[in-house]
Design brief:
37% of the residues lie in helices and 22% in strands. By secondary structure, the chain is of the alpha/beta class. The chain has an eight-stranded mixed beta sheet, with helices on both faces. Strand 3, helix 1 and strand 4 form a beta-alpha-beta unit.
Length: 254
């Protein structure tokens, strides 16, 4: 039987999805981050499928989301997007440290993935944490600076007020460059990486992940360790097909 347990890791609220008979045993772990304005519960389908394969799956709530939600307007939340990504990166290390302390990780097998903002978090995490063994980016961008610039430009073109000076923006872009995977592909170090993206995505550009993949695959001695799954006509919503393919691929590499 697969169990769903509500817990926390160093004050990070999360769900753990795992075989009830093995919940206290060391297992391969997959940590999966949700998207912007979503919550941990929304990723239960892929978590359940992974748990059936023998993984311990951790679904954290991001800052200002789910159990951590605060009374913020849409505009206020929008302005905190990158703060949330940075907090996700800190939370990821906290979750990993707690799992290690509890001796719940089998043979250091830890993977990280996420949807949209969670996929952006995953790409950024690969620049920071060499302990990540495999990753899955579901309609996220590994070109973080380009994505930030596109978002600001889109807001300005829509006539929205962006309460940041050019100096503020330049400082933000410089900071984001430090966690931009496309600017430090050597950090991949041949680690297994899976991309899924619908080519009709109006939110996160399909080209960001697709162009990155076509460059990154040249760095892999084993091209089977990096895979891009394109879904024709799919918009900004992960399909069941995408979830199943992600799970099947992870079972081979993690």
């Amino acid at each position: 039987m697969i169990g769903i347990y509500r817990n926390s890791f160093k004050n990070v609220p999360a769900l753990t999805i795992v075989d009830t008979e093995k919940q206290d045993q060391p297992l391969p772990v997959f940590i999966y981050f949700h998207g912007f304005t979503s919550a941990k519960e929304h990723n239960l389908p892929q978590a359940y499928m992974l748990a059936q394969k023998g993984y311990r799956v951790i679904l954290p709530d991001s800052a200002f989301h789910g159990e951590r939600e605060e009374d913020l307007s849409k505009k206020e939340l929008d302005m905190k997007f990158w703060d949330i990504v940075y907090q996700n990166l800190k939370d990821l290390q906290d979750v990993k440290d707690e799992l290690d302390r509890l001796d719940l990780v089998l043979d250091r097998r830890i993977g990280v993935g996420g949807t949209s903002m969670g996929g952006i978090t995953t790409s950024a995490a690969l620049t920071m944490y060499p302990w990540i063994q495999a990753s899955a980016v579901m309609m996220g961008s590994p070109k973080i600076v380009d994505f930030a610039e596109r978002t600001i430009k889109g807001a300005e073109q829509a006539g929205l007020h962006v309460p940041l000076t050019q100096e503020d923006l330049d400082e933000m872009y410089d900071s984001l460059a430090g966690i931009d995977l496309s600017r430090q592909m050597d950090k991949l170090a041949g680690r297994p990486l899976f991309f899924w993206h619908g080519d009709a995505d109006p939110v996160v550009p399909f080209e960001h992940s697709y162009d990155f993949y076509n460059e990154a695959i040249k760095l892999y001695k084993n091209p089977e360790n990096i895979r891009f799954l394109r879904e024709v006509g799919r918009d900004h919503k992960v399909s069941r097909f995408g979830m199943v393919e992600m799970v099947n691929w992870l079972e081979l590499v993690l």
